[in-house]
Design a protein that fits this description.
single chain, 108 residues, mainly beta, Jelly Rolls, five-stranded antiparallel β-sheet, three-stranded antiparallel β-sheet, 0% helix, globular
């Protein structure tokens, strides 16, 4: 049986989780509207794929205007943040254990 998941709300929602990985959908919200913080995940890489709209991916060393259908990987422990347009949807793929307990945030 094929399962389907969607998310049309704001912010970030895990769409599905399976064994050691999860896929989330990220959409516009106050948190993703401005570059005012960086975060890093201490145990896992995190991949971003722009599906629609526009988005900018930041690290503490660079910023990249994302292109649709390209996988952008942030290695574990790399400081990063993403901002998105109001019409954007970004797929996020990461380890299922990624959570606040193994994520650090610093506000700019």
């Amino acid at each position: 049986m094929i399962e389907k998941f969607s998310f049309t709300g704001e912010d970030f929602k895990v769409a599905m989780s399976f064994e050691s990985w999860k896929i989330g959908l990220l959409r516009y919200s106050q948190r993703f509207s401005k570059f005012d913080r960086l975060e890093r995940h201490l145990l896992t890489d995190e991949a971003f794929i722009l599906l629609s709209g526009t988005a900018v991916l930041y690290t503490d060393k660079e910023q990249i205007e994302m292109q649709q259908n390209i996988v952008y990987n942030i290695p574990k422990a790399e400081w990063h943040h993403i901002t998105v347009s109001k019409d954007a949807t970004v797929m996020v793929v990461e380890n299922a254990s990624t959570c606040d307990d193994n994520t650090e945030i610093k506000f700019l």
